[in-house]
Amino acid sequence: MVFARAKLAVEGTTKAMPETPPNRIPLAQIVNPRSIAVIGASDDAGKFGGRVIHYLIRHGFPGMLLPINPVRATIRGLPAWPSVAAAPGPIDVAVLAVPAAALLREVEACAAAGVGACVVITGKLADAGEAGAALESEVTAVARAAGMRLVGPNCLGLFNVTDAAMLSSSLALEVERVKPGGIGMVSQSGALMGALVSLGHRHGAGFSRCVSVGNQADLELCDFLEFLIEDPATRVITLYVEGLKEPARFAPLLRRARTAGKPVLCVKAGRSEAGAQAARSHTASLAGSHAAFAALCRDAGAVLLDDPAVMVLAADVLDRLGGLPRAGMGVAVVASSGGSTVTTTDMLAGFGLRTATMSDATRAEMARWMPPSHVHLPLDTGSFHDNTSEEALRGCLRAFMADPDIGAVLVPMTTQPAMAKRAAMLPPLAREGDRPLLYVMMAGEVGDAARDAMRAADFPWFDHVAQALAVLRALEAEAAGRDRATLAPPARPAGLALAEGLPSGALTEAEAKRLAAGYGIPVTRESFAATEAEAAAAAEAIGFPVVLKGVSRAVVHKSDLGLVKLGLGDTGAVRAAHAALRAAPLPLDGVLVQEMACGEAELILGARHEPGLGAFVLVGTGGVLVEVLRDVQLAPAPLRPADARAMLRRLALWPVLEGVRGRPALDVEAVIDALVRLSWLATDLGERLVEMDLNPILLRAAGEGCIAVDARATLR
């Protein structure tokens, strides 16, 4: 099995840069400059520099605009300057849209002219091989020496919608006006940022500041995330992440955003583990960089999504609609079509959502308008006594908005008479309540009038039920993150002792168990035996039946090589097993004699240190098929008991732990305690821990505990 360290970890190990001058301008002045020079400016909007100047003018930049072009006297009616040195200053920001061959010269000119920052649209640098990377390093060194900031290179600049400063060549700015609003965005892809702003524009979403960071040669994603947290114009933050230059900054910033009351929604590229290096342990193969990133986001209260479009649509709901649901609340589906009510309701479970359970008051209100047989969810308004009356719809929606178990109302609309009029009813009703109403126009172009009604009411809408359900799932995750922020910090259990004298590199099973036992994690009774006689004596002392295992630091999976002998019931069997292990065709460090432990279920507990992100722990369905089943959960260390319980509840194995088909409920409390203790072990070891497996942990019936029967660890 393989482990992908990916770009996340690689970028976390950058070389220390030299000290820089103190005259760097603040990010706020880069985002909202008073003066902008466009180097490579042109009248031709088909060129990068031409589009930058065109969009700055088109969207009403209020400051001083300085086109730089050595062969033109004017550009778009503005005086042009032959060089940045000749242009009047001071210049807050220069936008560079020049060929890579001219980039270093122009950056040097900007540095000499005292420009505060450069937005470098130029590409084909570190993203295009060694020569480009060398050029990028030179450019960055020049900027640092002058105290000049860089955005990019290989970016599409930034949209400051709040202050009409559109420093970008993105075709998303072809619209007459980008609507101001509360959505901030930082993206490592300029083209994707433009597409998402364009999508949001179509749906009526409003943006504050959107920044494309490109190669992050100087300013990086976390710098702009920090800016958006403090930015009064931004209410919701969206991130598209490929790699983090300073991953250790990320989680603390997510927590700061949560404290500031600003939801953070994130899409992380690179979920695939393809092409990763072989790992020594199950934990390493299952807890790759993306899994660690996802666990970190959940722990810090951010919402990690797969679909960038859903990220923007969910951010729009968070920005424009109030009344977030509590985690776990149900959904009420309301439609005038039996087909759309049923199919939408059928889809809820696939998105981790459920149909709400109505209160008596809600049922009584519904009973005013329809036969008793139809008083249920989903609500088909075609069952109203007077056939989809507006009065009945208002009454039912108001009841839903007050029902304690209804967290959101979902209204999918199919083709019907007066669609626009019916759509226009919904925004005022939604704003009366304290929970979101999500409207889906399922029809094609014949539904455009209804969409226009939503735009006129400044209200979100969706084209597809699946989009709306994905947004509801994001709102559910945001509510869970909000709840998580209220929890007390993890408390350290008593009696934890770090084992001394352990070597670096791969530990033997006995050494790894000694490490676990020091933190109070139950492990099997066992004894090292160099000879058959020692093995027999150890077995007598432990009590039959016993297990014999060959010990070798070079072996990861002992059972695959026949190095585990189970169920040895007497001295003769122990001697024979010892002889067989000693005859194995690989050198052994010795033989371990263990008690033969039993349990009702097998779990894996694991820990590892993810470079730049810290310590993580893992729990899942254990045994030899752990990497096949991949039923695991990951979380940053240390844990609260509630965190450990939540991880277990997310496992597919959870119903077995609760007791099924006549089997007893298992000792969940014991494995929670073990997982919490392992999380503190991982925290205390810090960067010294590479990875650790306790697999399997045998879980017994409630009250009977758990025990680790095998262990593996690697230390730095």
UniProtKB/TrEMBL annotation:
<dbReference type="InterPro" id="IPR013815">
    <property type="entry name" value="ATP_grasp_subdomain_1"/>
</dbReference>
<keyword id="KW-0067">ATP-binding</keyword>
<keyword id="KW-0816">Tricarboxylic acid cycle</keyword>
<dbReference type="InterPro" id="IPR032875">
    <property type="entry name" value="Succ_CoA_lig_flav_dom"/>
</dbReference>
<keyword id="KW-0436">Ligase</keyword>
<dbReference type="Pfam" id="PF13549">
    <property type="entry name" value="ATP-grasp_5"/>
</dbReference>
<keyword id="KW-0547">Nucleotide-binding</keyword>
<dbReference type="InterPro" id="IPR036291">
    <property type="entry name" value="NAD(P)-bd_dom_sf"/>
</dbReference>
<dbReference type="InterPro" id="IPR003781">
    <property type="entry name" value="CoA-bd"/>
</dbReference>
<dbReference type="GO" id="GO:0006099">
    <property type="term" value="P:tricarboxylic acid cycle"/>
</dbReference>
<protein>
    <submittedName>
        <fullName>CoA-binding protein</fullName>
    </submittedName>
</protein>
<feature type="domain" description="ATP-grasp">
    <location>
        <begin position="513"/>
        <end position="549"/>
    </location>
</feature>
<dbReference type="Pfam" id="PF13380">
    <property type="entry name" value="CoA_binding_2"/>
</dbReference>
<dbReference type="InterPro" id="IPR011761">
    <property type="entry name" value="ATP-grasp"/>
</dbReference>
<dbReference type="InterPro" id="IPR051538">
    <property type="entry name" value="Acyl-CoA_Synth/Transferase"/>
</dbReference>
<dbReference type="GO" id="GO:0046872">
    <property type="term" value="F:metal ion binding"/>
</dbReference>
<dbReference type="InterPro" id="IPR016102">
    <property type="entry name" value="Succinyl-CoA_synth-like"/>
</dbReference>
<dbReference type="GO" id="GO:0005524">
    <property type="term" value="F:ATP binding"/>
</dbReference>
<dbReference type="Pfam" id="PF13607">
    <property type="entry name" value="Succ_CoA_lig"/>
</dbReference>
<dbReference type="GO" id="GO:0016874">
    <property type="term" value="F:ligase activity"/>
</dbReference>
